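Researcher: Let's do a round of design. I'm pasting the structure tokens now; please hold your answer until I've finished.
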């Protein structure tokens, strides 16, 4: 949710979209509804009326099939093409890849536009992409596996495991995973913003990131409300390392990615980026001008937003994360623990709840992600086992406050699942 999405630009409405790893542009803090404070870097504020969005083309007639998802007829596919192209044109998106899969229906996998504006390289489904705050789903999965192993307690104070956390004797592991800790979001700190934008290739350690947060007072007592904060995930990443005895990337590779068969997903240690990949474009820069970001170092997002993946791997991940079951039928997260994960209290946005590192928006379970130059949306509709994945190579907001991934999610689901339209409106007060 992060505007949960843009790791830096406060994720607007959950961040905003819950998945955002956002930082406030020019150091100006962004606010978001109490429930989805910037997925990435936003804070909580009272819900506001939805922001304007580009008009969508009329939905094609509903063919026979599921009442929740339209059959993928040629007419529906053509409607998707038109909806995606319209968002691209309105929001000035260079390139996007979209996948829609429902068992028993034809797959919809299409790429539009360019992966690199300078070379004209076309966007294509096989490109590696940075996925921002979708990383949170993987980090919390690791935590939940340690819960199943008896090494971590969801209702234990984080101070039981890690020293030096403000209010650490009261903030629980559950509060951190559910974005209800009250800890200040480090990516909203002005000094952090200046440090990052002055040298986007510089590495950050988890301890450095926490220092930006911990110099601020706690914003509220744990559990009082929802406030999207990347700080929570940095602590959970350190928790995984301490209790597993492994580096976070190593743990994820061995216990989550390999069992899921996700061979094209990785947790980078620096600015490495497998090829082929798309160039990213952002205006989250020191001077506000658009810059290319493929070689930026995502270490500042670490456990909250550093991961890289592909369309095919995220197609695998959506149902895996939503069910807690690996593709081979083995258990990733125990059913009782998964049930707690999918308990999604209100966030302040109508129809949107946030559980343990995962959201439910109008029935769609998953997460969004955004960090400078890239955005992603990976969601799953259990009633029809439908997966939607959207990957794009810009995080530049539409009208200054709407995540482009949200625009695509809204347009796609209006076409394929009109009874379940993915939407994370941004509060009128949200700024960049």
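Researcher: That's everything. Go ahead.
Model: Designed sequence:
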């Amino acid at each position: 949710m992060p505007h949960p999405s843009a790791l830096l630009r406060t994720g607007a409405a959950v961040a905003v979209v819950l998945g955002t790893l956002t930082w406030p542009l020019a150091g100006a803090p962004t606010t978001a509804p109490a429930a989805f404070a910037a997925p990435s870097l936003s804070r909580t504020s009272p819900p506001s009326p939805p922001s304007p969005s580009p008009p969508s083309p009329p939905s094609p007639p509903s063919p026979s099939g599921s009442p929740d998802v339209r059959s993928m007829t040629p007419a529906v596919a053509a409607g998707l093409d038109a909806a995606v192209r319209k968002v691209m044109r309105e929001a000035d998106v260079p390139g996007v890849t979209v996948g829609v899969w429902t068992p028993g229906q034809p797959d919809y996998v299409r790429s539009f536009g360019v992966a690199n504006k300078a070379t004209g390289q076309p966007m294509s489904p096989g490109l590696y992409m940075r996925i921002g705050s979708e990383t949170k789903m993987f980090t919390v999965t690791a935590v939940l596996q340690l819960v199943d192993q008896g090494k971590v307690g969801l209702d234990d104070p984080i101070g039981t495991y890690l020293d030096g956390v403000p209010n650490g004797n009261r903030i629980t592991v559950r509060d951190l995973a559910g974005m209800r800790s009250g800890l200040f979001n480090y990516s909203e700190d002005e000094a952090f913003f200046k440090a990052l934008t002055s040298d986007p290739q510089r590495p950050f350690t988890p301890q450095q990131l926490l220092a930006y947060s911990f110099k601020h007072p706690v914003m509220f007592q744990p559990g009082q409300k929802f406030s999207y904060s990347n700080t929570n995930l940095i602590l959970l990443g350190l928790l995984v390392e301490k209790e597993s005895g492994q580096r976070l990337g190593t743990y994820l590779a061995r216990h989550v990615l390999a069992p899921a068969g996700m061979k094209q997903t990785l947790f980078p240690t620096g600015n490495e980026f497998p090829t082929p990949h798309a160039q990213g474009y952002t205006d989250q820069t020191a001077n506000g001008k658009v810059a290319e970001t493929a070689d930026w170092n995502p270490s500042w997002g670490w456990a909250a937003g550093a991961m890289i993946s592909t369309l095919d791997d995220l197609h695998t991940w959506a149902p895996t994360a939503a069910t807690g079951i690996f593709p081979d039928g083995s258990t990733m997260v125990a059913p009782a623990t998964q049930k707690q994960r999918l308990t999604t209290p209100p966030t302040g946005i109508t129809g949107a709840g946030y559980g343990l590192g995962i959201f439910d928006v109008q029935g769609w379970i998953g997460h969004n992600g955004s960090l400078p130059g890239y955005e992603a949306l990976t969601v799953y509709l259990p009633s029809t086992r439908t997966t939607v994945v959207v990957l794009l190579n810009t995080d530049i907001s539409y009208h200054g406050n709407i995540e482009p991934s949200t625009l695509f999610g809204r347009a796609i689901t209006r076409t394929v699942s009109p009874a379940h339209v993915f939407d994370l409106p941004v509060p009128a007060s949200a700024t960049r």
